[in-house]
Amino acid sequence: MSQLRGVNLGGWLVLEKWMRPSLFEGLSGPDETIFCLEKDHSKEILKAHWESFITEADIKYLASTGINSVRLPLPWWFLGEKPYHRSIEKIDEVISWFEKYKLSFLLDLHTAPGCQNGFDNGGITGQIEWHKSKKTLDLTIEKLAFLSKRYGKSPVFFGVEIVNEPHWSIDLKLIQDFYLDAYKVLRPLSNGCIVFHDAFRPNDDSWETFFKENNLINVAFDIHLYSCFGGEFEKMEPPEIINRTLSDRQKQIKTLSKFVRVIVGEWSLGLHEFLFQGLDKFQRDSLLRTYANAQLKTFEFAYGWYFWSYRIDQTSRIGWDLSRLIKEGIMPNSYEFEE
Asked: Is residue 110 part of a domain?
């Protein structure tokens, strides 16, 4: 297919407080586990969220812009394992929208049993137990196989991502061994792409061996590139961020692409707020537009990219909200290839 130019549907089927704070009013934490345990009428509220946060009209709109793919973050509990709520019927409906508007989709297992990273996006903040038990690892593969069987024959199925952002503290060999175990189960189930996240270590030398020596067919490597996480960005000025995007990150993508297709599965215009102090709206928008253009240019050297995210329910943090960025003229309103 053509190069992927896509967007994540984050904060929808996997909750994150910062993306829709109103859902978490009065709760003690920012993740979906807390939401399901503490929220009165959580099932009804969650279903209302599913119906309103992203609609068929949004998918139709994305297709009209030339966006050609969607990364769909999914929870491992989509069949309704307690205390969570069943979402498989909603997933079925979303897939039908993708088919109707001819948008390819990447199914991203965004949470894993036991939690793979301790983040809100992993479903349980502060817990990293996924890798400690054969039971949770096997259950992860079971869920991935279910998704591949159910959706792998769709005409717009791009692929499945084995697990999102396993934590950097987890032994990389354990993660790579798990990836191979999952690959062996998933490969016979569909012809789609099987995507491996870099576990926050994209430049580890072991990846080249992993991809070259395991005879992997139709796979890709997912790297997430942000400029707001980690101490290195806390005092970095805009010119340095732009130059880093155009030089270091472009070089990184080109180097990795020598042995595997690279997908920038998450990126945004999120920057530290101090960079905007003293700027008026025109200046803020100009900075964001420059940063956007630098990333779009660099990511064209990858196999594809997915912006994080399509929508957030906040008046601030516009750098994470593609729908508003397009409306404000900061991000392009057309992503189509020239014939």
From this structure: yes
